Amino acid sequence: MAERFVMSIDQGTNSTRCILFDRRGRLVSVAQKEHQQHFPEPGWVEHDAAEIWQNLRRVVPEALSVAGVDPGQVTAIGLANQRETTVLWDRRTGTPLGRAIVWQDTRTAPLVEELRDDPGEEFFMERCCLPPSTYFSALRIRWLFDHVKGLRQRADDGEVLFGTMESWLIWNLTGGPEGGLHITDATNASRTMLMNIRSLAWDDELLAFFGVPRSMLPEIRSSAELYGDARAVLPGVAITAALGDQQAALFGQTCFSPGEAKCTYGTGSFLLLNTGADMVRSRHGLLTTVAYKIGDQRPAYALEGSIAVTGALVQWFRDRLGLISSAPEIETLARTVEDNGGCYIVPAFSGLFAPRWRSDARGVIVGLTSYITKGHLARAVLEATGWQTREVVDAMNADSSVPLQQLKVDGGMTADNLLMQFVADVLDVPVVRPMVAETVSLGAAYAAGLAAGYWPDLEVLRRNWHRAGQWLPDMDPELRAAEYENWQRAVERSLGWARPPRSAGPGTP
Amino acid sequence: MAGPVQSIERAAAILRLLAGGPRRLGLGEVAASLGLAKGTAHGILRTLQHVDFVEQDAATGKYQLGAALLHLGTSYLDVNELRSRSLNWADALAARSGEAVRLGTPLEGSVLVVHHVFRPDDTFQTLDVGSLLPLHASSLGKVLLAYGTATIETAGETELEAYTRHTLVDREQLTRALAEVREVGWAAEIQEMSMGEAGLAAPIRGHGGLVVGAIGLSGAVERICDSQGRPRPNLITLIREASRAISRDLGATRW
């Protein structure tokens, strides 16, 4: 019998990737295609949903042909996707109504301010456990209703469908206007501000508040269950999983038990801690989110801490300061010195995210003396990522009953040994890197294969996980405490720097 | 002090001229622009062509800068970048072979381990990035020696250290072994660094095919070699595939 595989589709912010995995969770083939980023106005970020659907139709056959795999050898398809990105489309024609508004888009910032005052954060925290933020989809739907003429009426008339990327792609894969499935999963729905975090159903009060008609919303399903068979691209193959990308990475890292956590180090970084059946409401600036829901089992919840600037600081060091010519060289430069020389960089380029949430913070470099070289600056760049991780982990330990025992890491920055050792040093727990770096895709494949019976249970998936590298803490506790204090003093100096624009007065043009 | 060498000055002027504009130039244009006789310009251009600093278009006969010149200043490869670019392929090699994987570059007469992926059996292992291996007794080192990326100090004809009774300590034997590495494209180390252990390695090439490092796997000799004590063909295939994939990523086109 021919070998069988699970297909993972990762619809990310920059590209759409299709990866085939074998039974041991090993990567068999990869195909990917980037899509265009549209920036029509400052702070606006848009994608063309039709282009993304076209890209999916191209990468799937490519991934199969690279590995010489027949469509009949694919057991199931799982999707992972950029979260919160909002698509509206015409139910009859399947045409997107304007471009998708991407999670990074900040056009709803004035609305966020408004909601904080009235009805206030508590109204939302009680229902969806998310504070108002430019991230979440409901604010974008509201913005579109307020700015696109006739849209609200068409939605009320039942002509318009809403979805995040997985909904849009599953609808198209399963027939589009001809009976396509309009569904989402609990992890994606937990990022809309429309789902009740306890019941995992659309919340009537939130729908009423945002003026979103129920008829435009997808049905909320489990993250892993048989949704239906594809009718396009891979006809007859079962679609059995969907997860938001960060939740997929948590799943791919096999963080199935309460207290297990992963951090994905990219441009920004996302740390998720499995809290199991406990829906922990953070008192320390973290988000509560659905980690996954398998079939008809109870959902697992997670605490999430997002750090806006980690890899982006290295890119800034490379592109804006020009002190290195490639990102990995930051390690070479940092190793030219023994320590940071007393220098600290707080990369609050657009404020600070978790756990501080201070939009008035701006970046600072402190501790400059004539002794400081570019090597010390490179150290401070890497250490900023370590200390930001520490702050999120501290918040998680304060919120959760189980303290973190080890941190599983993935993403491009895990190639930096100096950084990974520093993270282990400042967290005082082992940091481990898995053998498959593509944890987002792997997580979607795992969920899909689990629902399709390709893998029998979570234990088998756990056994597929192998350590590729490990960094053990090796820092003098006194030094750790002193350095952490210095970092916190540096952060104090970044707060309150940005001021709201002054109102126009005499002398102002 | 001797004055400047005229032909080198003229060669530099020709290179600057070719670098200055977007289009290819004919012999007449080069000669006229620099006030040289056509014969002189032609001689210099042919010499530059011979060392790959200049290329001549086959159809039009016009000249442009050669690929070798473009890569002259960029052949340096940062070891941390090498690790970063090799990460996925090294992981895949470890997953498929079931063995530990290391990447090596030369450092002062030794092999510097720049990347290490654990053997995927979840036993306790320690990262040995930064440690040094002997050039003549490790498969990584033999690759670096074979392709001239590293050299052994010959001054004083110091003796090569014997780590085991299998270590190649005879220089002639080593030279023959290195010639064989170049011929087959991979190197083996069978109980030459420590008894019971074996390793295989293949070259990583950068721009223009220059060998910049080596990737290798290692483990218990009975897993790496068959019952005749020869490296297992499937492992050789895996290591060669991994080295080619990384080389392609680094811009070595022909490998």
Automatic annotation (TrEMBL), chain A:
Domain Carbohydrate kinase FGGY C-terminal: start-end pairs: 261-452
Domain Carbohydrate kinase FGGY N-terminal: 6-252
Positions of glycerol binding: 83-84, 135, 245-246
Annotated GO biological process: glycerol catabolic process; glycerol-3-phosphate metabolic process
Its EC number(s): 2.7.1.30
Membership in a protein family: Belongs to the FGGY kinase family.
Protein name as it appears in the record: Glycerol kinase
Record-listed sn-glycerol 3-phosphate binding positions: 13, 83-84, 135, 245
Cellular component terms per the entry's GO annotation: cytosol
SUPFAM superfamilies, per database record: Actin-like ATPase domain
Alphabetically ordered keywords of this record: ATP-binding, Glycerol metabolism, Kinase, Nucleotide-binding, Transferase
Activity regulation info: Inhibited by fructose 1,6-bisphosphate (FBP).
Task of the protein: Key enzyme in the regulation of glycerol uptake and metabolism. Catalyzes the phosphorylation of glycerol to yield sn-glycerol 3-phosphate.
Pathway(s): Polyol metabolism; glycerol degradation via glycerol kinase pathway; sn-glycerol 3-phosphate from glycerol: step 1/1
Binding site for ADP: 13, 17, 267, 311, 412
Any one GO molecular function term: ATP binding
Enzyme class of the recorded protein, top EC level: transferase
Gene that this sequence comes from: glpK
PROSITE patterns (alphabetical): FGGY_KINASES_2
Residues reported to bind ATP: 13, 15, 267, 311, 315, 412
Reaction catalysis annotation: glycerol + ATP = sn-glycerol 3-phosphate + ADP + H(+)
TrEMBL record, chain B:
Transmembrane segments: none
Coiled-coil segments on the chain, per record: none
InterPro entries associated with the record: GAF-like_dom_sf, HTH_MetabolicPath_Reg, Tscrpt_reg_IclR_C, Tscrpt_reg_IclR_N, WH-like_DNA-bd_sf, WH_DNA-bd_sf
Keyword Transcription on entry: yes
GO aspect biological process, one term: negative regulation of DNA-templated transcription
Domain of life: Bacteria
Record keywords, A-Z: Activator, DNA-binding, Glycerol metabolism, Transcription, Transcription regulation
Record-annotated IclR-ED domain positions: 68-252
Signal peptide from the UniProt entry: none
Record bears the keyword tRNA-binding: no
Domain HTH iclR-type positions: 5-67
Pfam families reported in the protein's UniProt record: HTH_IclR, IclR_C
Listed GO MF terms: DNA binding; DNA-binding transcription factor activity
Role played: May be an activator protein for the gylABX operon.
Protein name, entry field: Glycerol operon regulatory protein
